[in-house]
Amino acid sequence: MIQRFQFGQMLPTESVVLSLPVAGSPVPFLTPEGTGWRYDMAPEDVIYGLGEMVRGMNKRGWHYCANNSDEPHHTEDKQSLYGAHNFLLVSGGTGRPTFGVFIDFAGPVEYDIGYTDEEILTFRTSEPDYDLYLITGEGPADICRELRRLTGRSYIPPKWAFGLAQSRWGYQCEADIRAVAQGYRENNLPLDMICMDIDYMANFADFTVNQERFPDLAGLAAGMKSQGIHLVPIIDAGIRADDKDETCREGLERDYFCKKEDGTPFVAAVWPGEAYFADFLRPEVRSWFGGRYRALTELGIDGFWNDMNEPALFYTPDRLKAAVQRAAELGAKGNLDMYAFSELQQLINGLSNNPDDYRSFYHLVDDQPVRHDRVHNLYGGNMTRAAGEALQALRPDRRTLLYSRSSFIGSHRYGGIWLGDNDSSWAQLRENIHQMASVQMCGFLYTGADLGGFGGDTTPDLVMRWLEFGIFTPLMRNHSALGTRNQEYYRFEKWIPSIRNLLNLRMALLPYLYSEFMKAALGDGLYFRPLAFDYPGDAMARQVEDQLLLGEGLMVAPVCTQNAAGRYVYLPEPMKLLRLRSVDDFDTELMPAGHHYIPCALNEVLLFLRPGCLVPVARPACCVAELDETPFTFWSYPVEGSPCTYRMYSDDGVGTDYDRPEHWRTLKAGTGQ
Ligand code: MIG
Asked: For ligand 1, is residue 197 a contact (CB within 6 Å)?
């Protein structure tokens, strides 16, 4: 059940698709405190939600702020990352209430979840105008389903987007892209996508292609597609300020950019230097900007990633000028003491993403100017909405791949997200597991982290362990930053056979993984879930943070400790372990419920089958298009009294007629159909 409470008159977010009558106070479970709300937690209460944030799946013990940030260091001391996912799920201990809270608000929301006092949860919006939804249900998964009923069905990518994506910031030209394709194909490693980072553009201008480096992008895209590989270019939020650039000219002519108080367009620097920022909150601007993607779809492109859309700002011209002036004064003094030197450092570090700059420009909301900081969290998600809606109009019966860095609940209807600039550390692999569960609760099903880590130099063991989790994440993308160690899977020569086995395993499991993804998308469910969602009475399951349920029948338990040759796993019920080296080389073991230490070598994956589960397994292929869906074998854990069948969803992978009954069939072991 969903109850809507209204406080003041909120600025529209369009997060919600269901219009509900406003309930009278009081709000169940919550008590007013200051300008916000309070909930007194019992020690056993677990607080899930908040989507893309640092720390555990259980958010207790820290404070957070929904304030979308270009934050390249995802350490535990951070309060905000790229997304505003204002959903809390209080999972009560024995005899305690379980409920969800969705705060529909465009600006910052602060949360203190047992940070100041370990038993007190508080949250408050930066302004008194917002809607609050109180959600109850039969348990955590049902409450997440209700949230989706409220905010709309999750975005569905084309099926090929479940193949591997290889990306790197630093592919400069056609030859670099071809070398990646060749590296994969020569080594017989599956690959479905190559992402193109900012260097494909001419002067970092959106919707342009650098003609020297990519003289024939249409030809390249077609050639790649004949090998089963889709090119996925990046689009940045900042529009190059350049009167020779068509996007810039049109935006200025139509008056579509955000403005300063004096009515002139707001300018801040990003990749191309000075840039303008389209006012994505206006529907006409969205349809214009989204329509610009056509420049690339016409060349045969059918996938995009939207970056820098918090929006990230390197500096504003005024701030830069003042900083340089002050720096020169300090420089003239020479011999800087600690305070003067730290002022100098601050001058430079404070240039980027400066809160004052976010307070210096305006959007038009229903024709009224609204200062950016008040609607900050809606910006990136509306860039994705612009693209999502326009691409749907451009290619009405076909899906387009789209994922974004910034997002808010509501933008999950238009695209997936990737988890931004993580780094090549074991801590970030563990964080990836937490985040996958949390973002799914908020509706972002098509997600994944940069496998192997984005920043810093990776290592072969981390690449292996991360891929062993990555083969289960909907978006499976290897991406790394400029200047870091080469990270394409074929670079780790000694490990290529094992990596091939892992990627083949993903392909073999794809009919199951895709089917479970589609069940979650179409039924407002969760592809990944914490254990406690399915084993509510199990106090131990409530503490497990590094194992996830995957779809109906599987559980994954990735190894995420350096040098570990195994790990402890908790089984809430008996399960069948598959210790997989490849799709046809594995040991199985029936394991009783409880704690187990399970060896797992660097080339092995632990996969657990729940009782009664049947998993169709296909023959691996080099790309999703080549995959034969007919199961060539089954993995199962039959138990007495349960039928051991699998309800499978399959479709052509690109069409949008999801709701047809022919997409469903029931598989039984041994029948092969
Ligand atoms: O400030 O386009 O998160 O994936 O490679 C860095 C360059 C800008 C940030 C993205 C990252 C991408 C990078 N971008």
From this structure: yes
Which of the listed residues 133, 151, 169 is the one where a domain comes to its end?
151
Nearest-10 Cα torsion for 316, 321, 322, 327: 120
Ligand 1 near 405 CB (within 6 A): yes
CATH number of the domain within which 641 lies: 2.60.40.4040
| Structural domain harbouring 95 | 2-151
Three-state SS at 317: helix
Substitution site in 68, 234, 475 for ligand 1 pocket (most atoms within 8 Å of beta carbon):
234
What is the total count of domains within the chain?
3
What is the CATH classification number for the domain harbouring 49? Answer: 2.60.40.1760
> Tell me, what amino acid is at 63?
H
On whether residue 475 sits in a domain, the answer given is: no
**pLDDT tens sequence across 639-649:** 988 789 999 99
**Chain segment 478-500, per-residue pLDDT in tens:** 999 999 999 999 999 999 999 99
Residues in the chain: 673
- The answer to whether position 645 is within a domain reads yes
Within a domain: 507:
no
* Residue 412 to residue 421: CA distance in whole angstroms: 20
- The model's pTM: 0.97
Name the residue with the closest Cα to ligand 1, atom 6: 308
Calculate the dihedral angle through the C-alpha atoms of 587, 588, 594, 599, rounding to the nearest 10 degrees. Answer: 0
Asked whether residue 638 is domain-assigned, the answer is: yes
- Spatial contact of 625 and 229, defined as CB atoms under 8 Å apart: no
> Under a CB-based contact definition with an 8 Å cutoff, are residues 597 and 568 in contact?
yes
